[in-house]
């Protein structure tokens, strides 16, 4: 498994709810932002996926909310891929305040969809190896 990739995000006021903390759905947006940032970091652009006629898909997501976030907080959103056998992989993510406080843990199951057949590819690792300029960013 690779070292976690991290991207910094500042919590914006319009992302908060009536209690003044980050709306629960925005955690998913931060996680998605970090995953796409990791793809770019590893050398995979969205156009590369479209040209190859594949796309990453989220099949399952679980969030553990641990500490609230408020407008103005800066957080680091970590992302690491965990590979197994078969058509799916796990994505492990953490959202931490810059002081190290763990605010949320997000675990997901993903795959790579063949856009023409509308089915998951047999081995998503091979797609990442083929398209990435730095497969090591994905633990490959």
Keywords:
140 residues; 24% helix; six-stranded antiparallel beta sheet; alpha+beta
Please, could you describe this protein's structure?
The chain is an alpha+beta fold and about 140 residues long. It has 3 helices and 6 strands. Strands 1, 2, 3, 4, 5 and 6 form a 6-stranded antiparallel sheet that branches. Strand 3 and strand 4 (about 90-95) form a beta hairpin.
List the helices and strands and how they pair.
Elements: E1 5-10, H1 24-41, H2 46-52, E2 54-65, E3 74-83, E4 88-97, E5 102-114, E6 119-120, H3 124-131
Antiparallel strand pairs: 1-3, 2-5, 3-4, 4-5, 5-6
Structure in a nutshell:
This protein is α+β, with helices and mostly antiparallel strands. It has helices at 24-41, 46-52, 124-131, and strands at 5-10, 54-65, 74-83, 88-97, 102-114, 119-120. The chain is elongated and about 45 Å long.
